[in-house]
Specification:
The chain has about 325 residues and is α/β, with parallel strands linked by helices. The protein has helices at about 90-105, 120-130, 155-170, 190-200, 235-255, 265-275, 295-305; strands spanning about 15-20, 20-25, 30, 50-55, 70-75, 75-80, 110-115, 135-140, 175-180, 200-205, 210, 215, 220, 230, 260, 280-285. About 30% of the residues lie in helices and about 20% in strands. Helix 2 links the parallel strand 7 and strand 8. It binds flavin mononucleotide.
Length: about 325
């Protein structure tokens, strides 16, 4: 009599992530500014399945943001000039933080993105936010101009190093500091190194690319702000390249993890970022198409890692094979 051989169980893959000592149950997070303060998406997707939730940029004072149009669609991407519209520090702490703390009790880590227009702005805002026990990390959006000299913090290595130093010194020690790198630079390894020297625990990359779209009939820019930031699938190969460049030149040796983002829409996209050197991943523009994208990506990644004979996600990070 023929006996059937039992099918071997699918191996479980450890998807947990260690971000400079901060443990995440899984690698997926939301990209700042694309998922509000969290409750906006609550009806569409179970956010508690995320490794971390990242808020939109919070500034010291409330901001209305730019005039409409402030989002336009481009082929393969999205152009936005929101202008950091947000409720400001005080309202954030009073009205938005309790919901985030509740979400945190169900699993995901909470990361608050902070923006500012002077070193003092950043220091005051990060210090207050980092004092809250429900917040695990602060992500600094450094793609903002300094009111003092008009220089963008994230594009000037000296300014960036100084900013990170002052912010780090003012923060609760066990609250991690993530610095979000701008791609709008000549050599991103210079700003990545400056951020690490200043005291960044983690790097996240990339923020959007400065770009423009034109209404050819009106002969005017399509965004009221004239320029905006390009995101979505159009920027993905550029982002993968920059992640790999920073991983090999700075992050690997400094032992600083990278959160990769820029056009991630599928598990295959996510796998590219992991191979390039990212330890965790954020999804932004794709949430506008399907808010469940980060959750769906996790299933695909598990199968991919099992097929690559990896027992954990960590094993694949930075394993891109490049011929000498
Ligand atoms: C509508 C929109 C708003 C954004 N707002 C912020 C923000 O407030 N702070 C920030 O650091 N990045 C912001 N970003 C950038 C994203 O967090 C992310 O870095 C970028 O979009 C690349 O990822 P993606 O291609 O998956 O969207 C925003 C992006 C979009 C599309």
């Amino acid at each position: 009599m023929a006996t059937s051989t039992p099918t071997p169980p699918t191996p479980t893959v450890d998807l947990s992530v260690d971000l400079a000592g901060l443990r995440l149950a899984g690698p997926m997070m939301t990209a700042s500014g694309t998922c509000g303060y969290a409750w906006e998406y609550g009806d569409f997707v179970d956010l508690t399945k995320l490794g971390a939730f990242v808020t939109k940029s919070i500034t010291l004072h409330p901001r209305k943001g730019n005039e409409a149009y402030r989002i336009v669609e481009t082929r393969g991407g999205m152009l936005n000039a929101i202008g950091l519209a947000n409720v400001g520090l005080e309202v954030f702490l009073k009205e938005k933080l309790p919901q985030l703390a509740d979400m945190r009790s169900k699993g995901p880590r909470i990361i608050v993105n902070v923006a500012g227009h002077s070193v003092e702005d950043y220091v005051v805002t990060t210090q207050r936010i980092a004092d809250e026990k429900a917040i695990d990390a602060i992500e600094l959006n450094v793609s903002c101009p300094n009111v003092k000299d008009g220089l963008t913090f994230g594009t000037d290595p000296l300014l960036l190093r100084q900013l990170i130093k002052e912010v780090r010194a003012s923060m609760r020690r066990d609250c991690k500091l993530i610095v979000k790198l701008s791609p709008n630079v000549g050599d991103i390894t210079l700003t990545a190194r400056a951020a690490v020297e200043g005291g960044a625990d983690v790097l996240s990359m990339i923020n959007t690319y400065t770009a423009m779209a034109i209404d050819i009939h009106k002969r005017k820019p399509r965004l009221a702000n004239t320029t905006g930031g390009l995101s979505g699938p159009a920027v993905r190969p550029l982002a993968v390249y920059l992640v790999n460049r920073v991983y090999r030149a700075v992050a690997r040796d400094a032992n600083v993890p990278i959160i990769g983002m820029g056009g991630i829409q599928t598990w295959q996209d996510a796998a590219e970022f992991l191979l390039a050197g990212a330890s965790a991943l954020a999804v932004g523009t794709a949430l506008f198409v399907d808010p469940a994208t980060p959750i769906k990506i996790m299933d695909g990644l598990s199968s991919y890692l099992a097929q690559q004979k990896c027992a954990s996600l960590r094993e694949i990070v930075g394993t891109l094979k490049i011929d000498p």
